[in-house]
Amino acid sequence: MTRRVLRDLLPVVAVATGFVVAWKLLVVIGGYPTFILPPPEVVASRLVAAWRDGTIEPHVATTLTEILLGFLIGSGLALVTGYALARSRLAERLLSPYLVAAQATPILALAPLIALWFGTGLASKVIICSLIVFFPIAVATMVGVRSVDRQLLEVGRVYRATPLQVLTRLEIPGALPLIFGGIRVGATLAVIGAIIGEWAGGESGLGVLINLARGSLFDTPLLFATLLTIAALGVALYWLILLVEHQLVGERG
Amino acid sequence: MGEIAVMPGRTRAALGPMRLRLALGAFVVVQLLVACGPAASGSPRLVASGSAAPPTPLTVGLGYIPSVQFAQFYLAQQAGYYRDGGLQVTFQNKIDPDLVTLVGQGTIDVGISDGTSVIPAVSQGIPVRYVATIYAQFPNVVYAKQASGIKTAGDLRGRKLGTPGKYGSSWIMLQALLSSAGLRPSDLDIELYPDFGQGAALAQGAVDAATGFINNEPVQLELSGTRSTVLRVDQAVPLPGNGLIAGTSAISSKATQLRAFIAATLRAMQEIEADPRKGLDAAIAAVPTLGQDRRTQLAILKATIGTWSSDYTAAHGAGAVDQAAWAKTVTFMASLSDSPISGTPPGVPQLIDTSLLPS
Fold first, then answer.
1. Residue B185 in contact with partner chain A when CB distance is under 8 A
2. Of the four listed, A240, B21, B51, B167, which is most buried by Cβ atoms within 10 Å?
3. Mutate to test the interface with B, among A27, A35, A45 (most CBs of B within 10 A)
4. Can you give chain A as a three-state secondary structure string?
5. Residue B271 pLDDT grade (very low, low, confident, very high; cuts 50, 70, 90)
6. What mean pLDDT, rounded, does chain B reach?
7. Mean pLDDT, range A197-201, rounded to an integer
8. Domains within chain A, CATH numbers bracketed
């Protein structure tokens, strides 16, 4: 077990080490000042200081709340819609063009409007997160449900399975690997959605901290520290989804 | 081909194939990173000198959106004042935070920026200096409809005020204005409008007052037929308005060119003060869409011109930098609970450089 964990972690650690070394070399060879490209040790020190003095923590709490609510609402709606699209040609014909159009509209352009309509509080961020999460999960659900083995469904009919039994015993288990593919993408997009929502307005959140670090404090190390925190949030969510996926889907995932 | 520089003392033959590949790979990666990286600060550039020399390129950063507020730059360009000064000027429009950083980096030679941005930037080690005052009066204001009954900063207590965010020059101005009346931001109901929708909110009655610019929102409100009240901060804390900033390396290496640029810009400002229509025409020539509403643009320009002079510049000349006002501002900004200044507040000599002003 320990050996397997080590085997999995070693490449990750090696790449991270290589990245930090290359970053440091770039700073040293390029002779860049801290306000253009801070060296990794300065960013690490700023990250620790910002956590210790309470600069980052409240912003993380805000962003995490937005992400979780937006992700839950967006993915819930996407699962229902994706299933409807998979099972109803009429629903697909009616909804698909609008879903694609909504997806093609830049969320960056929509965010200020959503902030205007719903205020700059939690609601607008949750809506933006939900919107950005919705499409990949809806499409993955539709494709996943359609990919369920038809012979299995036939067997279900032969044994007079109820629609609920078909859904819970055949369709959901069969579609789960693909659905989780969409959920993985959605989870990382939810992070982006929260940040975009905070850029459109708000008093707290990691997006607000980026604006403060860049636009008011000119604190480039804090900007990098915030970006690292956002990246860490995304990775943590992704791993959490992988963990759940592994429990539910196993080796099929 | 010589020996591999990254591993002195060993010949290529002495290296095993794997180690050779690793060394070469590392060398290539570093070279690529350096080549793709941002430009280092203080990169040497050719500086032309002498009357026969070709004009020296000078990149000038203006505010984010081309506007009649930059009429003096457009006029100096079109009238050939920059060319006569041996300059080939190119304008770039940038938001303030980007502009300060790019000037510090050396990508932009000179730009117009908030004085209140220079202080936190210098405290973070960005090598910029404020070299000439353009807005001798601080342009950020709080304004309200006259019908609101707000006449002084003290009247803002308990009122609803719209502002883009709790940062930047408007936020500093608001805190300075409120402190002059013994108030704090918590004494007001502050609504945030990050996309600068506070003007529309005020017009619709969603807020009682808003932050804005003396040469923009209040002008538009008056033009729409609504009388306005404007609360200015200058009497309370003389905050430094927008001015020209330059990087310290540019000040050293392009002093002659920067002097010529400042002189040409101030000359254009004087001409526009004497005849605002000249500035309006220059702005419309540079930004044709401004010509769709000459009346509004002229009103904005006249309000802008009103901020270019103060008692201090009247006494010390156009572009003069009020060092005492800067010292007061540093003290005030350092005293704020959410001060944007990092570490020990910089001294005035670290913030301004008056050597480029006309003597």
1. no
2. B167
3. A35
4. CHHHHHHHHHHHHHHHHHHHHHHHHHHHHHCCCCCCCCCHHHHHHHHHHHHHCCCCHHHHHHHHHHHHHHHHHHHHHHHHHHHHHHHCHHHHHHHHHHHHHHHHCCHHHHHHHHHHHHCCCHHHHHHHHHHHHHHHHHHHHHHHHHCCCHHHHHHHHHCCCCHHHHHHHHHHHHHHHHHHHHHHHHHHHHHHHHHHHHHCCCCCCHHHHHHHHHHCCCCHHHHHHHHHHHHHHHHHHHHHHHHHHHHHHHHHC
5. very high
6. 86
7. 86
8. 55-252 (1.10.3720.10)
B192, A214: Cβ pair inside 8 Å?
no
Question: Of B40, B168, B192, which is closest to A120 when you measure between CB atoms?
Answer: B192
Is the pLDDT at B50 greater than 50, yes or no? Answer: no
Task: Write down the pLDDT at residue B52.
Answer: 63
Using CB atoms, pick whichever of B38, B97, B126 lies closest to residue A215: B97
Are A211 and B340 inside 8 Å of each other by CB?
no
Residue A203 touches chain B, beta carbons under 8 Å:
yes
Indicate the pLDDT class of residue B236, thresholds 50, 70 and 90: confident
pLDDT of residue A71: 97
Q: A203 vs B193: CB contact, 8 Å cut-off?
A: no
Distance CA B155, CA B149 (A): 8
| Structural domains for chain B | 56-137+240-351 (3.40.190.10), 140-231 (3.40.190.10)
- Considering CB atoms only, which of A29, A34, A212 is closest to B125? A34
